[in-house]
Amino acid sequence: MVAKSKAKKLREKLEREGKMNPEIKRSPFVLADMRTRTTKTKKDQIYQFKNKNHRFQDGNDGSILLHFVLHYKQHT
User: In whole angstroms, what is the distance from residue 7 CA to residue 22 CA?
Assistant: First the structure.
């Protein structure tokens, strides 16, 4: 036997008393999984990494690090 939540108990009580049960108003798509899952093909996997910088073995990926230090001295 599974425990009932307070919300479910309240819904059942309202239904017993002849009032509207909110479960009836729920969309039919609430419990449906609308996502489609497919396994990637070899072509999809290759295309995913095609334009990313994953093919540089020597560590030179073409990026540049610029570091600026500004010194500001206030004249008093």
Answer: 10
The set of residues, in sequence order, having a beta carbon less than 8 Å from that of 12 and lying 6+ positions away, is: 4
Sequence-ordered alpha helix ranges (H) in the chain: 6-16, 42-48
pLDDT digits (tens, 9 = 90+) for 65-74: 787 777 777 7
Q: Helix, strand, coil proportions of the chain in percent (round to 5)?
A: 30, 0, 70
Q: How far from the centroid of its chain's Cα atoms is residue 50's Cα?
A: 24
> Alpha-carbon distance 22 to 12, whole Å?
10
Phi, psi values for residue 40, rounded to 5°:
-70, 140
**With 70 as the cut, is the pLDDT of residue 51 above it?**
no
Q: Which two tokens stand for residue 8?
A: 């479910």
Alpha carbon separation from 24 to 2, 11, 21, 29, 40 (Å, rounded)? 22, 10, 6, 13, 39
